[in-house]
Design goal:
Radius of gyration: 21 Å
CATH superfamily of the largest domain: Enolpyruvate transferase domain
Largest sheet: 4 strands, mixed
Number of domains: 2
Number of strands: 24
Bound molecules: shikimate-3-phosphate, phosphoenolpyruvate
Strand order of the largest sheet: 22-23-1-24
CATH class of the largest domain: Alpha Beta
């Protein structure tokens, strides 16, 4: 799908979508907890659908009922020998360790960008836990044969936190007791806070976090009551919400609802960058009001919140001077190599992006040009280009704009509802 965004001032009120990070974790937790779980505000993105399909293959019964998702489970009891994780890195990395709890041999597969993303972690780690693993030279598909047995182990957390998220769920569900996962160089730390929060919200046994260097399971396995259904409300998404907030800061006067300011989500840190750039923003518990004003360049460390690079590059394009974002090394293995895609696609809009070691330098404040850009099938690149287009000097046409469906199915509709002038060849928005 090709979408053209014409320069427009956005206005009105919008509600952020459900967080796919929270939704996918809730699916895992509902499968592991057993009994009945009712998810309120469930996600509808492609990654959310992938997680629902995976837990179905792993034995859960899943139904969308009105605006909720009802999950019934007896724990991990696969009905198939394969799970397909679509394009979701989190689902593939989290559910591999969870699927390994069963003794049924299972193939972990994916599609699109996911089949190019690294999975060597499992060939190194899972055999130490009694799981037989074969990979396609470190890539998907993986063939695993469990059951996983929790043991003291040391893992490397520098590439991604998602592998650790999976191990934490699996150890918790396997009743790990007096067992420690030691972690070197953990990246994306707040995502582990979110994992631990969901583990505890679902009453699963939660390890003690020793400064992100080790996670010790010392609880006796909890005998959870599954008699009562658990009602769980999925948080709004700070990662998708960041694009809406930047849209308001560069070209609007909007109110964003549905973002919990007390969330543990990594991308809540977008507020720090917006405040540093002196955006006109008022933050209340139930809504954030943000409008266009003169913006100053900012310096932001995104090592622990790498998904903020794309929206912050769009923000930086409108800040008067050079903004600096730290953590470029975290971008290589996402849906695209995001450092290069941002440089190339924003370059087409006249925004100069340079690199110095781990820093990205974005020269802003000199105008954004109309251009034809490409999402590279990366949802966050499509959304960043769209938001940057709102204050551009001409139309920006985005190829493969449907990439947004990975995390934010209604992105184009929400932008249109905020009065953005958007035109699509495929369908009216
Ligand atoms: O756990 C999660 O929900 C995620 C963790 C992050 O990945 P890394 O841990 O690989 O940085 C993030 O980039 C991804 O979009 C979602
Ligand atoms: C990298 C992302 O997700 P995942 O790793 O779960 O595919 C993302 O949403 O930007």
């Amino acid at each position: 799908m090709q979408v053209t965004v014409s320069p427009t001032q956005v206005k009105g009120t919008v509600t952020a979508p459900a967080s796919k990070s929270a939704m996918q974790r809730a699916c895992a937790a509902a499968l592991l907890k057993g009994g009945k779980t009712v998810l309120q505000n469930p996600g509808v993105s492609n990654d959310d659908e992938a997680a629902l399909d995976i837990i179905t293959q792993l034995g859960a019964n899943v139904q969308r009922v009105n605006d909720t998702v009802v999950i019934e489970s007896n724990g991990v009891a696969p009905i198939s020998n394969e799970i397909n994780c679509g394009e979701s890195g989190l689902s593939a990395r989290m559910f591999t360790s969870i699927a390994a709890l069963s003794k049924t041999p299972i193939t972990i597969n994916g599609k699109g960008s996911l089949v190019k993303r690294p999975f060597d972690f499992f060939t190194e780690v899972l055999p130490q836990l009694g799981v037989d693993v074969k990979s396609n030279n470190g890539l998907l598909p993986l063939h695993i044969s469990g059951p996983l047995q929790p043991k003291n182990i040391e893992v490397d957390g520098s590439l991604s936190s998602q592998f650790l998220t999976g191990l934490l769920f699996a150890y918790s569900a396997a009743g790990a007791n007096d067992v420690t996962i030691s972690v070197k160089n953990l990246s994306s730390k707040p995502y582990i806070d979110l994992t631990l929060k969901v583990i505890s919200d679902f009453g699963l046994s939660k390890p003690v976090n020793n400064n992100y260097q080790s996670f010790n399971f010392s609880d006796q396995p909890i005998n959870q009551s599954t008699a009562q259904p658990l009602n769980y409300s999925v948080e709004g998404d700070w990662s998708g919400g960041a694009f809406l907030l930047v849209a308001g800061a560069v070209a609007g006067d909007i109110v964003v609802k549905g973002l919990n300011v007390f969330s543990t989500q990594a991308d809540k840190a977008v507020l720090q960058a917006l405040m540093q750039s002196e955006a006109t923003i008022s933050i209340e518990e139930s809504q954030i009001h943000i409008r266009k004003s003169k913006l100053k360049p900012f310096h932001f460390n995104a090592v622990d919140c790498p998904d903020l690079f794309p929206p912050l590059v769009a923000l930086a394009a409108y800040c008067e001077g050079t903004s600096v974002i730290e953590g470029v090394h975290r971008l290589t293995h996402k849906e695209s190599n995001r450092a290069l895609t941002l440089q190339e696609e924003f370059g087409k809009m006249g925004i100069e992006i340079g690199f110095q070691d781990d820093l990205m330098l974005i020269k802003g404040g000199e105008g954004v040009k109309g251009a034809a850009v490409h999402s590279r099938h990366d949802h966050r690149i499509a959304m960043a280009c769209a938001v940057a287009a709102l204050g551009a000097e001409g139309d920006v046409t985005i190829e493969e704009a449907e990439a947004v469906n990975k995390s934010y199915l209604k992105f184009w509709n929400d932008l249109a509802r905020l009065n953005a002038t958007i035109y699509s060849l495929e369908k009216s928005l």
